[in-house]
Amino acid sequence: LSEKHQGQGIVTNSVEKLCDFAFNDQGLNRIQIKCAVDNQPSRKIPERLGFKFEGIERDGELLSGGVFTDIAVYSKLKSDL
Predict the structure, then answer these.
(1) Exposure of 54 in the CB half-sphere (CA atoms within 13 A)
(2) pLDDT the model gives residue 6
(3) How far from 5 is each of 2, 11, 34, CA to CA, in Å?
(4) HSE value, Cβ hemisphere, 13 Å, CA-based, for 55
(5) How far is CA 10 from CA 33, 54, 55, 63, in A?
(6) Which of 12, 68, 16, 13 minimizes the C-alpha distance to 38?
(7) What pLDDT is recorded for position 34?
(8) Any idea what the Cα angle at residue 60 is, between residues 52 and 80, rounded to 5°?
């Protein structure tokens, strides 16, 4: 999202609706969210929605410029609802 639209709950609400659709309409059992360890705004989204922190994937993503970054891994199971 552009900066002027960040911090308004738009992404959190969208992820919440997508999870509901995935679990209830599509029959998925597990949803996983990965985000850069240093990206605190992105990490707050799964934390707010009750996802469980599973750990750090070392050098899990290649950024522009050829630099790798560690990734925080979160998951939610249908049974967590």
Answers:
(1) 16
(2) 87
(3) 6, 10, 22
(4) 4
(5) 16, 25, 26, 25
(6) 68
(7) 97
(8) 15
CA 72 to chain centre: 9
pLDDT in tens, 16-69: 999 999 999 999 999 999 999 999 999 999 999 999 999 999 999 999 999 999
Q: Return the residue matching tokens 């738009």.
A: 10
| DSSP character string of 31-69 | EEEEEETT-HHHHHHHHHTTPEEEEEEEEEEEETTTEEE
CA 21 to chain centre: 16
Name the nearest CA neighbour of 35 among 44, 23, 26, 27.
44
pTM of the model: 0.89
**Mean pLDDT score across all residues of the chain:** 95
